[in-house]
Amino acid sequence: MTHARGERTALCDLLDRLGPEAPTLCTGWTTYDLAAHLALRERRPDAMGGIALKPLAGYTASVQRRLKDRHPYPELVGLVRKPGGVYGLLPALDEAVNTLEMFVHHEDVRRAQPGWEPRELPEDLERLIWKRVSTGARLMLRKSPVGVVLHRLGGGVVLGGPKGHARVEVTGRAAELLMFCFGRQEHARVELTGDPAAVAALREATLGV
């Protein structure tokens, strides 16, 4: 099983177990909303633009609401459980595109529940996550108000954020750095060092793709 499929299965098992009204780290979204988002992303390409482009966000939101209206929660989770669209036809594309998507949203659900703890991940998944963080840091940290130095526990350093500004060093496991860079700063187990004002600004910044 690929990491994308493993994270997808674990996420859907958790969604089934928690039900439709559980909280997530996605602001304003319950587990029902997150399931609708993931189904839309793979099965409604006409509505995907609004995920990243604000002018199209209204249409995307309306499609997501209609998915909830038309599908009971267990059906939506069932749609997410099986890769849809081109991802169902091309497993290699599913692995390339969806490993981080499913990982982050799996953690969005896990970390919104009381008593969560970081998972021990397979070493190859940790390496894959770090590789994606390394190549995507500039994009994910483009809105940072300060320079950022990512230190991976176990080895690896990546720079992000604007040059010529105060720098904050962020240290943690690859998965925790990913969650931090995806805008889940409050729920990432990392250590921040630097000027207190810069650290505070980075904690409150809008990060992610």
TrEMBL record:
Superkingdom per UniProt: Bacteria
Transmembrane segments: none
Protein name per the record: TIGR03085 family metal-binding protein
Lineage: Bacteria, Bacillati, Actinomycetota, Actinomycetes, Streptosporangiales
Organism of origin: Nonomuraea salmonea
